[in-house]
Amino acid sequence: MAMPNEALQKVLQEISQKKAFAEQQLLIVRQQKTARTREGRMLQLTSSEVSSLPAETRVYEGVGKMFVLTPTSSVQARLQAESEALVKEMSNLDKKEDYLEKTYANSKSSLEQVLKGAS
User: What is the spatial distance between Cα 89 and Cα 28, in angstroms, rounded to a whole number?
Assistant: First the structure.
């Protein structure tokens, strides 16, 4: 049973829009993952540098337009907290990426099925 032209056009348009949206969101998520990976490497490097300093070394952190003397233990604790938050965010981005990949694949296969059914 063939679908009327108008209904077919509407279905194709909806599926195409869903596919394009998923593809666009997938690109954004991958860019975010790349940025977060870079941030993670920077945190890891900073943490290793701070931990290699002698205990009596003065460490300053930027706060707005000034620098404040901060104990190395506080700096390490902040870096650890940021690193844990980054791991959680990466996990969420991985889940979102999986969902978008499935949505994209499903939209693509639906589009192919509709086109095969139309011909």
Answer: 14
Residue 10 in 3-state DSSP? helix
Is residue 48 a contact partner of residue 101, using CB atoms and an 8 Å limit?
A: no
Q: Yes or no: say if 36 and 86 are a contact pair by the CB < 8 Å rule.
A: yes
Tokens of 3: 């679908």
Which H helix or E strand runs over 87? Answer: helix 72-118
Q: How is 32-79 classified by DSSP, letter by letter?
A: HHHHHHHHHHHHHHHHHHHHTS-TT--EEEEETTEEEEE-HHHHHHHH
pLDDT digits (tens, 9 = 90+) for 26-79: 999 999 999 999 999 999 999 999 999 988 889 999 999 999 999 998 999 999
- C-alpha 22/C-alpha 101 separation (Å) is 7
